């Protein structure tokens, strides 16, 4: 039996800090945030995050056996989690000081199975529409060759 442990060090005041940041400082905060300091990032073993100056967010992960379901492929929850995380950070990078948003609904389309042989996959979020109360974001999970494995909106 294999064993795995994880830990994180997310500051208790992270939410209060995020709310106080303007858009650019929020982008900078997320761009510098080590994934091992984010509980879900540590648990799932997200490798890194990148954010461009416009708030385009990408998350990266290399599938491992501990991500597997009983069928011998990566559990769909991993794709859903990394896409949700990416979409959420992307939406929050669009907001002004004093505001945060969270996922209200997610639909994931699984297009093909992911295994350890897939190699590193990237989740990238695209803002579709910013409304008065809701931000619509689409995410794609793809490999280094651009082959899409899952999408989420």
Could you characterize the architecture of this molecule?
- The protein has a 6-stranded antiparallel sheet.
- It has 153 residues and is of the alpha+beta class.
- The mean pLDDT is 91.
- It is built from 4 helices and 6 strands.
Write the layout of secondary structure elements.
Elements: H1 14-20, H2 23-32, H3 39-44, E1 48-51, E2 57-61, H4 76-92, E3 108-110, E4 121-130, E5 135-143, E6 148-152
Antiparallel strand pairs: 1-2, 2-4, 3-6, 4-5, 5-6
The unreliable regions are none
CATH class type: Alpha Beta
Provide the structure class.
alpha+beta
Total E-strand runs = 6
| SS summary, helix count | 4
**Whole-number tally of structural domains:** 1
Strand order of the largest sheet: 1-2-4-5-6-3
Percent range of helical residues: 25-40%
Amount of beta strand: 15-25%
CATH homology group: Hotdog Thioesterase
Could you give a short account of the major beta sheet? 6 strands, antiparallel
Radius of gyration: 16 Å
User: Could you tell me how far the N terminus lies from the C terminus, measured between alpha carbons in angstroms?
Assistant: 37 Å
Q: Which overall shape is indicated by the principal axes computed on the Cα atoms? A: globular
């Amino acid at each position: 039996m294999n064993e795995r442990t994880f830990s994180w060090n997310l500051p208790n005041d992270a939410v209060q800090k995020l709310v106080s940041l303007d858009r650019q400082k929020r982008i900078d905060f997320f761009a510098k945030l080590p994934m091992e300091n984010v509980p879900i990032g540590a648990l799932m073993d997200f490798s890194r995050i990148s954010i461009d100056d416009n708030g385009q967010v990408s998350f990266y992960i290399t599938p491992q056996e501990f991500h597997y379901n009983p069928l011998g492929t990566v559990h769909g929850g991993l794709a859903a989690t990394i896409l949700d995380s990416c979409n959420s950070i992307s939406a929050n990078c669009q907001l002004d000081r004093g505001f945060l948003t969270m996922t209200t609904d997610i639909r994931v389309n699984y297009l093909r199975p992911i295994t350890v042989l897939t190699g590193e996959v990237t989740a990238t979020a695209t803002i579709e529409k910013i409304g008065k109360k809701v931000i619509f974001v689409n995410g794609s999970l793809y490999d280094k060759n651009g082959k899409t494995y899952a999408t989420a909106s």
